[in-house]
Structures are given as C-alpha cells and as structure tokens.
C-alpha cells in the first residue's frame, strides 16, 4: 500500500479526464436509454406522492424513502416529467459514484485495479439497469462509496493530518451512512460494519475519539432528514408500517421469502452472475462460462492473496453483513436486491486479476469482460424499453373494452390502472368473495365483469373463465411474473 501521507496528492490531469469521461458516459448512456413508462406500483406510488404526499395512502410507499423523495421533488420542481424526476437522482448518483469508487480502489489495490474497476462499473448491466428504474436503489451508489472512501481516509491518515482535516474522514463517512438510511431502510446494516471499523481504529490505531466521531456522524446524518420528515408524518402511521401492523397491498407477487437455505445460496450466486455480470446475456446456459471464469479467477486469486491487513479485509467488513441481509431477508428475484454487492465484487475481481502480476492477461480479461457486459447491457436496455410489465399490459387490455364492461383488480395492477387510466372504471378488491357484497352486486349489474388473477381465490374458481394471460420478467430464475385476466360467467352465482 502506498505511503499514507500521499493520500490527498492531486491526481494527474489524465486521471481526472478519464474519470470525468467515465462519469459523463454513465450519465449520458442512462439518460438516453430511459423508458418513458413507470413499470411498477412502487414507482407509481412515488409519482402520486409528487402530486400529493400521503404516507397513509402509500404515497410514497412506507417508510417513505424521504431522502430519495426529496431529490425527486427537486427534479420535479425543476420542470422534469414525473418519470424523469424519479429516474434522474439515481442516474446522477451512479455517475458521480465513479469518483469515490476509483479513489477507494486505488487506495486499496493500486491505480491499475482502480481503472479496471471503473471501466467494469460503467458498463455493468446490474448498475446500468438499476439507474433506469424509477426506484431509490441507484441513489445509494454515490453516498455508499463516498462513505467507504472517507472512512478509509480516516484510517490511513497519520494523526497530525487527521486532526487538520477531521471532517473529511470518519465523521463525513458516518454522515453519509445516516443519509443512506433515508434512501433505503435496509442500509442500517452498514452501521454494524462502521462500528467494526471504529473498533479497529480504537484498538489498532489507538484513536480514542473514533467511536464518538462515528456516533456523532450517524446521528447528524439521520437528523438531516428525520427531523423535517417526522414533522410532516404521523409517527403512529410510520411505526405501524415499519413493524408490519399495517401492510401494503402493493407488494411484489414473486419473492424468495419461502425459499430454503440451499435455494437462497443458489439464488445469491444466480443473482450476481445473471443480473450482475451478464451470465445470461444470450439466454443460454453455455454463456455462464465467461463471467463465471472471470469471477472465479478474480475472486479466487484475491482469496489466495488474502492477508490480515486493512487493504484485504476493509471491503469484506462492509459487504459480508450486507450479504447476510440479502441472503436472509432480501428478495433475490429482484435485480436490485443485491445491487451494492455488484460494485464491491467488481473492485475485488479487478484487484484479484491485477494481483496476478500479468499486465497483458489483466488487460485482456478486463477488456473481454467489459465488452461482454456492454453488449448484454445494450441488449437488456432494448428489451426493457420494448417490454411492458404484466400489470400495465392487463390495464391496457381492460380499457379497450366497451363501457358495459367492468373490471376488478388486486395489488399492483390497480395502482397502475389508477395512474394511467384515471377516468376509466375499475375497482380494487382483496378477495373474489367480495363480489357477493351488495355494493359490488349493484355495480356489476348488467355488465360483463373482468377480474385479474392477482386477487386471491380467482384462479381455479368455476365462476370465472380465463380469457387472456400476460407475463414478463423472463430473467427471473425458475419463476414467471404472470397475470391472467378472467371473465365472470353469465350463469355465475355472483351475478345479479
């Protein structure tokens, strides 16, 4: 590792040009490839929140993601459309993350590994697709890697320099960690990692105030968003949603919540390889070979060279607890479920390949994987822009029907129906048996009734016949996100 007193030497102009070029590439490529549609109920809820903030109405979805919502509100106030306002914060964050990612990797593993990591990051399909989705997860990228960079800076600076620039260290990193909690609640897991790093600084480096700086920074970071947020939100409603006493009707229909330990282990590997490193680029199992070979070579050599030194265990201290959370509590079918693991793996892969001390092999491996990831990213972007989610597809199918027809939705489809077709007739219900209520019997009188399979009890019920089916998310391992449209039979007992 380089001498710690050189940590803040001004970078060469060529390095600055390279980083700005990569950041501009990330930003422009994401803006150009954005989809004009909101694909999910979660993103629609954020769009509704831009019109009227109401946490009890799931506008935005609880617990509210206040930091993300603040940036979307700023973008909306600046004149961007609702879709672009929801996407822009993630795109800018993913572009700016190039800088802390490079300096973090350079400080740990050297310039060569850092440059390779930035190139792979810029074209990685998981990072690319996450930035296109109108969700808060891509916004985590910059504050996360900036935090890691600042904390590492605190550990490496000698005492006399650390006192001169104490803010640009653990305190700044802890503030970013506190801000991240306002973007996504699961980032609280990183507080454990921050505590472990502080203990290392206390015991190994004899820095007595490091725990105080960490706690002070976390409290300050949380306070920046929590104080104004709680002024406008009912604490009782917030606690009800967080503790599960109040559940959202707009939840993912497909998840890995019921998967066993063995299945979850495979889902983690599958998610990283397929969504993170383009293992399913051409939808054929043979094409797992390339990313798996590079993954195995990079990570394998990194583990072979692993020593009990800061440069080797610093990143694992942050990623192992996060991996544990993903393993036990994350929805591994979601492409954003392991998003922050992907850039971390990129750094370790680049470092492992660089540790082989074969410059030509290193450059060929990085170039090959970068070209592969770029090709797959472009392919997936095209599919994403052309594809229509099953929820939106079933909504479009319903609105083309004449006025004498009526449709009942459940879950996510109803939310999209409200957003895209506010003037059309449709209701959301929780179960098929609700149609027997007098209110709904009057509504459906002399009308042809359609109902979606999202509603429990519809599939397999003799009162309904299937008339259409819509599916999507072909990158889900062993599962398909499908919604069927049913029609109530004229001789049904529910009919008036």
Q: How would you portray this structure in words?
A:
By secondary structure, this protein is mainly alpha-helical. It folds into two domains: 4-386, no CATH class; 390-488, 3-Layer(aba) Sandwich (D-Maltodextrin-Binding Protein, domain 2), CATH 3.40.190. Helices cover 59% and strands 6% of the residues. It has a five-stranded mixed beta sheet with strand order 2-1-3-5-4. Helix 7 runs parallel beside helix 18 (359-386) and helix 10 runs parallel beside helix 12. The chain starts with 12 loop residues before the first helix and ends in an 8-residue tail after the last strand. The model is unreliable at 1-7 and 474-479 (pLDDT under 50). This is Glycosyltransferase RgtA/B/C/D-like domain-containing protein. Keywords: Membrane, Transmembrane, Transmembrane helix. The chain crosses the membrane at residues 17-38, 67-92, 104-123, 135-152, 164-181, 187-203, 210-231, 286-304, 316-349, 361-381. It comes from Candidatus Raymondbacteria bacterium RIFOXYD12_FULL_49_13.
């Amino acid at each position: 590792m380089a001498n710690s007193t050189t940590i803040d030497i001004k970078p060469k102009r060529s390095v600055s040009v390279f980083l700005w070029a990569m950041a501009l590439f990330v930003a422009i490529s994401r803006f150009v490839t954005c989809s004009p549609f909101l694909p999910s109920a979660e993103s629609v809820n954020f769009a509704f929140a831009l019109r009227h903030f109401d946490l009890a109405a799931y506008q935005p979805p609880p617990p509210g993601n206040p930091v993300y919502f603040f940036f979307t509100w700023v973008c909306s106030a600046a004149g961007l459309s609702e879709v672009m306002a929801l996407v822009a914060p993630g795109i800018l964050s993913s572009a700016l993350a190039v800088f802390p990612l490079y300096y973090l990797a350079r400080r740990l593993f050297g310039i060569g590994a850092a440059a390779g990591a930035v190139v792979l990051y810029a074209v990685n399909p998981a990072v690319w697709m996450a930035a296109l989705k109108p969700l808060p997860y891509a916004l985590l990228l910059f504050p996360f890697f900036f935090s890691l960079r600042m904390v590492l800076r605190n550990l490496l600076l000698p005492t006399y320099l650390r006192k001169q620039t104490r803010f640009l260290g653990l305190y700044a990193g802890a503030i970013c960690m506190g801000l991240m909690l306002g973007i996504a609640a699961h980032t609280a897991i990183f507080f454990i990692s921050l505590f472990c790093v502080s203990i290392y600084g206390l015991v190994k480096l004899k820095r007595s105030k490091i725990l105080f700086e960490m706690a002070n920074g976390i409290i300050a970071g949380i306070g920046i968003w929590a104080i104004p947020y709680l002024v406008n939100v009912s604490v009782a409603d917030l606690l009800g949603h967080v503790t599960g006493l109040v559940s959202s009707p707009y939840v993912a229909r497909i998840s890995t919540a019921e998967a066993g330990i063995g299945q979850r282990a495979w889902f983690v590997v599958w998610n990283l390889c397929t969504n993170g490193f383009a293992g399913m680029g051409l939808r054929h199992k043979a094409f797992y070979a390339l990313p798996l070979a590079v993954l195995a070579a990079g990570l394998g050599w990194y583990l072979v060279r692993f020593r009990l030194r800061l440069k080797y265990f610093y990143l694992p201290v942050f990623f192992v607890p996060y991996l544990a959370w993903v393993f036990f509590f994350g929805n591994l079918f979601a492409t954003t479920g392991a998003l922050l693991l992907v850039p971390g793996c990129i750094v370790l892969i680049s470092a492992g390949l660089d540790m082989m001390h074969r410059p030509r092999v290193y450059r060929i491996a990085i170039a090959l994987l970068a070209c592969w990831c770029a090709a797959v990213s472009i392919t997936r972007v095209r599919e994403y822009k052309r594809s229509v989610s099953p929820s939106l597809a079933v909504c479009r199918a319903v609105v083309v029907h004449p006025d004498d027809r009526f449709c009942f939705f459940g879950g996510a489809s109803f939310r999209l129906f409200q957003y895209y077709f506010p003037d059309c007739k449709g209701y959301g219900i929780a179960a098929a048996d609700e149609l027997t209520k007098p209110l709904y019997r009057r509504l459906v009188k002399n009308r042809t009734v359609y109902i979606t399979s999202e509603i429990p009890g519809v599939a397999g019920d003799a009162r309904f016949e299937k008339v259409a089916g819509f599916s999507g998310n072909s990158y889900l391992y062993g599962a398909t996100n499908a919604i069927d449209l049913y029609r109530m039979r004229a001789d049904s007992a529910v009919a008036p």
